[in-house]
Design goal:
single chain, about 325 residues, alpha+beta, three-stranded antiparallel β-sheet, 9 strands
Length: about 325
């Protein structure tokens, strides 16, 4: 059977790794010195270049100290896996495309996803920023002792205050297996999303203060957890969904600037994005959210996104 990896060139994969890993010049991963000389090619992988540091005298190669070092699968398989992750394909489908066992793919995607989340750039929001929260049905997959007797599999993001599993009204928490996801997005800018233990002011205050520049104009709905934004040092405007108001023109210019439509649009994208990954546990959900955040902020798709992903995991 012809697979995606059969069509890839090992040499080009190593060229890509060198391009993104040594973007600022070749440097020793042990001591950081740039006084490095080439030292032939790897015995088993002729595409992999070897080097020797003149300062610390240690040898290394293209993959030393990277996420790809010491892996059983060839580099082209890892690059293919990362590319398919960027297309938001499920682990099961990736296993089929690469002709691998699903457990191997699970381990690979977990390591790659974690690396992206650990190394993605820190985001600071300013200008006009929208806040909102949504609820995701997520249990404890892989931890039988923690699974509550509710039946079914973890669902995708549900509408605010409503669980697709329990069919009960009310705000969700980690304890009720309906963890809140808090979103902040700058209009025309970046997104930050975090899974919360609960939706309380004491929970969101440190996240907001660490992420949003003081004095920023923030738009929210009427939920009372946002009532202290002004006392925290931010400007604040509210749209009242409970009265049927979804956008308001305050300055009479014909443009309804008071709304949270941007972040609510993100929730629609998140629902679709989570759908192929059914049964995400609470333990894994923050990593999936972080990966979604990276992809959203990268504003790239396909091969262009693969370059950003490689650059990030090799940072």
């Amino acid at each position: 059977m012809l697979t995606l990896t059969d069509l890839l060139d090992d040499a080009k994969c190593y060229d890509a790794v060198r391009q993104y890993r040594w973007a600022d010049g070749l440097a020793c991963p042990h001591c950081g010195s740039k006084r490095v000389n080439k030292r032939g090619k790897h015995d088993k992988h002729p595409e992999r270049q070897r080097y020797c540091c003149e300062d610390c005298k240690k040898e290394f190669d293209d993959l030393t100290g990277s996420i790809f070092s010491g892996r059983h699968q060839p580099l082209r398989v890892w690059v293919s896996c990362l590319y398919l992750m960027g297309l938001n394909i499920s682990n099961q489908q990736i296993a089929k495309e690469l002709n691998l066992h699903k457990d191997d793919v699970q381990k690979m995607t977990s390591k790659l996803r974690q690396a992206v989340v650990d190394k993605k750039p820190e985001v600071q929001l300013a200008g006009e920023v929208e806040f909102d929260e949504v609820y995701v049905t997520a249990g404890h997959k892989g931890h039988p002792e923690a699974v509550k007797k509710k039946g079914g599999r973890g669902g995708v993001a549900s509408s605010k205050g409503y669980s697709s599993r329990s069919k009960l009204r009310g705000r969700g928490t980690l304890e009720t297996e309906k963890p809140p996801v808090f979103g902040m997005i700058a209009r025309g800018g970046d997104l930050v999303i975090r899974m919360l233990e609960n939706v309380q002011q004491t929970t969101i205050e440190p996240i907001i203060k660490a992420t949003v520049v003081t004095g920023t104009l923030i738009f929210t709905d009427e939920y009372n957890i946002y009532s202290r934004l002004e006392s925290w040092g931010f400007e604040h405007k509210t749209v009242c969904h409970s009265t049927g108001e979804y956008a308001r023109d305050e300055d009479g210019d014909g443009f309804c600037e008071v709304h949270v439509n941007t972040i609510e649009g993100v929730w629609s994208l998140l629902r679709s994005w989570l759908r192929p990954h059914r049964g995400i546990s609470q333990e894994k959900l923050p990593i999936y959210l972080g990966f979604f955040e990276f992809m959203h902020n990268a504003r790239k798709r396909g091969k262009a996104l693969l370059g950003s992903l490689l650059k990030t995991v090799l940072a």
